[in-house]
Amino acid sequence: MSNSLLPSLALVAVWPAFAAAKEPAVPQVSLAVHGGIAAEKRELNDELRDTLRAELRRALQAGQAALDKPGGGSLDAVEATIRVLEDSPHFNAGRGAVFTHEGRNELDASIMEGKDKRAGAVASVTILKNPITAARAVMERSKHVLLVGRGAEVFATKAGLEIVDPAYFWTERRWRDIERIWKKEAEGDKKAAALIKTEPWSTVGAVALDRAGNLAAGTSTGGMTNKMFGRVGDSPIIGAGTYADNKSCAVSATGHGEYFIRYAVAHDIAALVEYKKLPIEEAASTVILGKLKPAGGEGGVIALDAHGNLAMPYNAVGMYRGYVTRVGKIVVLLHEQ
Amino acid sequence: MSNSLLPSLALVAVWPAFAAAKEPAVPQVSLAVHGGIAAEKRELNDELRDTLRAELRRALQAGQAALDKPGGGSLDAVEATIRVLEDSPHFNAGRGAVFTHEGRNELDASIMEGKDKRAGAVASVTILKNPITAARAVMERSKHVLLVGRGAEVFATKAGLEIVDPAYFWTERRWRDIERIWKKEAEGDKKAAALIKTEPWSTVGAVALDRAGNLAAGTSTGGMTNKMFGRVGDSPIIGAGTYADNKSCAVSATGHGEYFIRYAVAHDIAALVEYKKLPIEEAASTVILGKLKPAGGEGGVIALDAHGNLAMPYNAVGMYRGYVTRVGKIVVLLHEQ
């Protein structure tokens, strides 16, 4: 059995155990969530910290309830978990999405199940309340995998999904961020504008393993603050931000999307598990710490294998994250390892 | 040395040698091209067949000229090769793009280089004459990897790339295809409409290896005839339709894009080469014949490793394709194996 919540010895220097002290035996996990790469500690006051913890816990509870329902599967759990964070104004997905350079909110999401490797995704959508539900609808109710822009919106509208006015995605905190950047840019200080990074890579995602042994993964994001019109990151890209295969693992990523696309991060972790027979924690940290970090690609993943072993490596100050063990214990972590 | 143009014994039943009889030694290849999965033989007259051969040869000559130039690299070769096929009305990319369900031409393309694994892509663009050049501009002149729709068009326009009226992409042959489908749909015969498949998965792509040992790959497409508004296939998806890594290989795919995304085909072939140390022809046929075919995913790839070994497996009636050997010999193939 692999000690998936403990680092391998070779990695101990860069990747300290984040839960080792808390649980003597290695817990088997049924569900995990991430809320993106954390802001610097000093940027969070106690109130916001508590709110983030509470929201992550609420998301895990919703996901676990979906898993526990008769007939409930890992796809239901992933969707339910992510919907809670999409509906929260505190994460960069759904309601709390960051603004593009043009002051819009363009959302992306993807979902995949590990049994038949079916997948669905939407990108650059502006009126869909829950992009993760739209991604699932693309998977289950269209012949396609990826729909973008207006086409995705027309499909989701016809499918009866919840449509909102783009103003729904306006939140004061995100608007202040983009205004600060615009101000610096107007002053001609592009360097200062580029340095304004509050939660630069905050995306949400979930992975789950159900009683039938089926894995699923999903990811949802508002993208990068101040991103170029039409820029799509890794979140809606199957193989980059999301992957699930019962033969290996389920992965959801958060980070500097361009690197995650170029390194096909989610699929690469699955390939290391399947082809090199690496334990999940070694596969995930090989990619996040061994490949992305030297290349300058900030981010992290949650990765769950078919036996319930979980890895959550990241190469940044922290990652908002949590998991539910097979016996129902919920653990939520922000900066602590 | 691997006999990359010969099938492994285990695969001989399903994948007969396609060039074995022509060249006694296994040729090392510097450049390869594909023009998509072939139409049924009976759908091509001699004139069209000759035209396709001539265009593929012309594309290879343009690519090889780019490789032979002082300072010319594999990226230049891939771009030059693909531009010839984009400018031809006979392939489903650029000028000859098929029509969407709404009667539009929405183009996708991607490019990647194997040294630093940089990549660029555009999707759902309607006014860019050469999407492959736009993909390269995204890679070299933006901080992003994937730009879609109007955002990609604005970027390409500012970058000074060639813009055309959408009518440029109107060709009589493709228009007749979509008209036939609309007619059947109007008659309420969706089944018959779905059966109208002329060159259903025809996309173009190239892979190259330059004297410095750098691999590159690129893919360009007009997508599926009658595709849903906003549907994006595998061609602009790094890891699905295109991948390049000097550590393993360069891959460009053509086929039923949804399967190529779900199976992360291009990256999976690279992973089999890097992690399982499979020879390129075994890696490529494992994915195309061993995984996609049983799942119902029609298509093929061209895959070139860092030693110049080429594989071109496909699980369909034929694949328009060709290559240039290190000694400058050009080979073009349609249905023959």
Give a description of the structure.
Two copies of one chain form a homodimer. By secondary structure, the first copy, chain A, is an alpha+beta fold. Chain A has one domain (15-333): (Glycosyl)asparaginase (Glutamine Phosphoribosylpyrophosphate, subunit 1, domain 1, 4-Layer Sandwich), CATH 3.60.20.30. Helices cover 33% and strands 21% of the residues of chain A. Chain A is built from nine helices and 13 strands. Chain A has helices spanning 46-68, 74-87, 131-141, 149-158, 172-186, 190-195, 257-262, 265-275, 280-295; strands at residues 29-37, 107-113, 119-125, 146-148, 204-209, 215-221, 231-232, 242-244, 249-255, 299-305, 310-311, 319-325, 330-333. The first copy, chain A, has an eight-stranded mixed β-sheet with strand order 4-3-2-6-5-1-12-13. A four-stranded antiparallel β-sheet of chain A has the order 8-9-10-11. In chain A, helix 1 packs antiparallel against helix 2 (74-87), helix 2 (74-87) packs antiparallel against helix 3 and helix 8 packs across helix 9 (280-295). The first copy, chain A, is globular, with a radius of gyration of 18 Å. The two termini of chain A are 22 Å apart. Residues 1-24 of chain A have low confidence and may be disordered. Strand 7 of chain A pairs antiparallel with strand 4 of chain B, so a sheet runs across the interface.
> What distance lies between the first and last C-alpha atoms of chain A, to the nearest angstrom?
22 Å
CATH class of chain A: Alpha Beta
> What is the name of the CATH architecture of chain A?
4-Layer Sandwich
Q: Strand order, biggest sheet of chain A?
A: 4-3-2-6-5-1-12-13
Q: Spans of chain A of 5+ residues with little confidence (pLDDT < 50)?
A: 1-24
The CATH H-level superfamily of chain A is (Glycosyl)asparaginase
Beta strand % of chain A: 15-25%
The tally of domains of chain A stands at 1
Q: Roughly what percent helix of chain A?
A: 25-40%
Q: Main β-sheet of chain A: number of strands, strand sense, barrel status?
A: 8 strands, mixed
Structural class of chain A: alpha+beta
Name the biggest interface.
A-B, 43 and 43 residues
Q: Can you write the helix and strand succession of chain A as a string?
A: EHHEEHEHHHEEEEEHHHEEEE
Kindly identify the CATH topology of chain A: Glutamine Phosphoribosylpyrophosphate, subunit 1, domain 1
Oligomer: homodimer
Overall outline of chain A: globular
Helix count of chain A? 9
Radius of gyration of chain A: 18 Å
Average pLDDT confidence of chain A is 89
Number of strands of chain A: 13
